[in-house]
Automatic annotation (TrEMBL):
A molecular function (GO) term: O-methyltransferase activity
Gene Ontology terms: biological process: methylation
Keywords, alphabetical: Methyltransferase, S-adenosyl-L-methionine, Transferase
Organism this protein belongs to: Maridesulfovibrio salexigens (strain ATCC 14822 / DSM 2638 / NCIMB 8403 / VKM B-1763) (Desulfovibrio salexigens)
Name of this chain's protein: Methyltransferase type 12
PROSITE patterns attached to this UniProt entry: SAM_OMT_II
InterPro entries named in the record: COMT-like (IPR016461), COMT_C (IPR001077), COMT_dimerisation (IPR012967), SAM-dependent_MTases_sf (IPR029063), WH-like_DNA-bd_sf (IPR036388), WH_DNA-bd_sf (IPR036390)
Domain O-methyltransferase C-terminal: 161-267
Domain O-methyltransferase dimerisation positions: 20-91
Cleavable signal peptide: none
Gene3D superfamilies tied to this protein: Vaccinia Virus protein VP39, Winged helix-like DNA-binding domain superfamily/Winged helix DNA-binding domain
Source organism, top-level taxon: Bacteria
Length: 338
C-alpha cells in the first residue's frame, strides 16, 4: 500500500490522550491515602505494595507518575512526600484539598459521561449542578478550595477598604461554606455576617459557622438572587466569590439588587476568574469553560472591565482591583456605592 507520508506532528494529541489518566491517578492516590501513609515515614515499593495489598508492578508505575508530577520523591528506592503533597494531599493537613479535587472530578465525570447529549442541548446539568452545593462534601470541597490560595489575599484587601473598622454588617452572597465571612469577621470584632444563599444551602452554612465558633455572629438568609430581592439591611459590605458567574448572561439585575441592599457608601466586592492578564494557560482556561458551560452555566469568567461598567450603571464607583489568587487568575473587584 502506498500510504501518505505524515506532514504534521500528531504527538501532541497522542500525548494529551495518554496524559488524561494522570488526574485519575492522583485522585486515586489521595483516596487510598498513599500520601497519608508516606507522611508517617518513607517506604520502599515493596513495603507499600505489601501494606496496601497492591500489585507491585502496577503500584511502581503509579509512583513513577507521581514522581514526575513532583508529588512524591524517590530517594534511592525510598518514597516520600514532597512539600506540595504534604501541604495539600495529606488528609490531616489544614490545607487538605482532597474533597475540592473530588468535587472538580465529579463535574468532569458528568460532562464526559453526557457530552454528546449536552452538546445537542437534549440534556441540562444546571439543576443538578445547583443542587450539589448543598451536599456536605461539596460544601467542604469548596471550602477547601478557598484555602488553597485566594482566601487570605481577599480578606487582606477587604480589610484595607476605607472605613472597614467601622463596618457592622456584612452580606456574603452565595456564601456557602462561610470561610470568607468568618475570616473577614475575624478582622473586625464588631462586624456581624449574613450568608445569603439558596434555601437548601443555608442550614448547612449556619451549622458550619456554629461549628467554627461564629454561631453568635453569623446567620443565614434563604434567597435566590436570580428571582428574589436581597434583604434591605443597609449592609456595609456585600461580598460574592465565584457566584456571579451563575448570572453572567443577565448580570445587571443582580447588581441592582446588591445596590438596593447596601447603605450609601457601602462596598461590594466580587471575586471571580478573569481572562485578562491571567497566568493560566489557554488550554486550562478553555478546559474550565468546557466544564462550566456543560454544567449549565454561561461562563466561569467575568472580565473586570465588563463588571465595572455594569456596576457603574448601577451607581457604583471608586473601583479597586486586586489579584486574590494570581496563580489561578482570580481577581477581586471592589466598588463603592455612591
Amino acid at each position: 500500500m502506498n500510504y501518505p507520508r505524515p506532514e504534521q506532528d500528531f504527538s501532541p494529541v497522542h500525548s494529551l490522550i495518554i496524559r488524561s489518566v494522570s488526574s485519575q491517578v492522583v485522585m486515586e492516590a489521595v483516596n487510598f491515602k498513599l500520601f497519608d501513609t508516606l507522611e508517617l515515614k518513607p517506604a520502599s515499593l515493596k513495603e507499600l505494595a505489601e501494606y496496601f495489598e497492591f500489585d507491585e508492578l502496577k503500584l511502581g508505575s503509579l509512583l513513577d507518575l507521581l514522581v514526575s508530577y513532583d508529588l512524591v520523591q524517590d530517594n534511592n528506592g525510598q518514597y516520600s512526600n514532597t512539600y506540595l503533597a504534604t501541604e495539600y494531599l495529606v488528609s490531616t493537613s489544614p490545607l487538605y484539598q482532597g474533597l475540592a479535587m473530588g468535587l472538580t472530578m465529579d463535574f468532569c465525570t458528568g460532562v464526559i459521561r453526557d457530552m454528546g447529549e449536552l452538546l445537542k442541548g437534549n440534556k441540562s446539568q444546571r439543576d443538578d449542578s445547583d443542587k450539589k452545593w448543598a451536599a456536605t462534601d461539596a460544601m467542604e470541597g469548596t471550602a477547601q478550595e478557598s484555602l488553597s490560595g485566594g482566601l487570605h489575599a481577599t480578606v487582606d484587601a477587604i480589610s484595607l477598604l476605607p472605613g472597614f473598622d467601622d463596618f457592622r454588617l456584612m452580606g456574603d452572597l452565595g456564601g456557602n461554606h462561610g470561610n470568607y465571612t468568618m475570616s473577614v469577621l475575624a478582622r473586625n470584632p464588631q462586624l456581624n455576617g449574613v450568608i445569603l444563599d439558596l434555601p437548601h444551602v443555608v442550614p448547612l452554612a449556619e451549622q458550619r459557622c456554629r461549628d467554627n465558633g461564629f454561631g453568635a455572629r453569623v446567620k443565614g438568609v434563604a434567597v435566590d438572587m436570580r428571582e428574589e430581592e436581597l434583604p434591605a439591611l443597609d449592609f456595609d459590605l456585600i461580598f460574592a466569590s465565584h457566584v456571579l458567574y451563575a448570572c453572567r448572561g443577565n448580570l445587571k439585575p443582580v447588581l441592582e439588587k446588591v445596590s438596593k441592599s447596601l447603605r450609601s457608601g457601602g462596598w461590594f466586592c466580587a471575586n471571580h476568574y478573569a481572562k485578562t492578564g491571567s497566568p493560566m494557560s489557554t488550554q486550562t482556561i478553555a478546559s474550565l469553560e468546557v466544564i462550566t458551560t456543560f454544567a449549565g452555566y454561561f461562563s466561569h469568567f467575568i472580565e473586570p472591565d465588563i463588571l465595572e461598567q455594569e456596576l457603574k450603571e448601577c451607581g457604583f464607583g471608586n473601583f479597586r482591583r486586586t489579584w486574590s489568587d494570581s496563580s489561578k487568575g482570580i481577581m477581586l473587584v471592589s466598588a463603592q456605592k455612591l
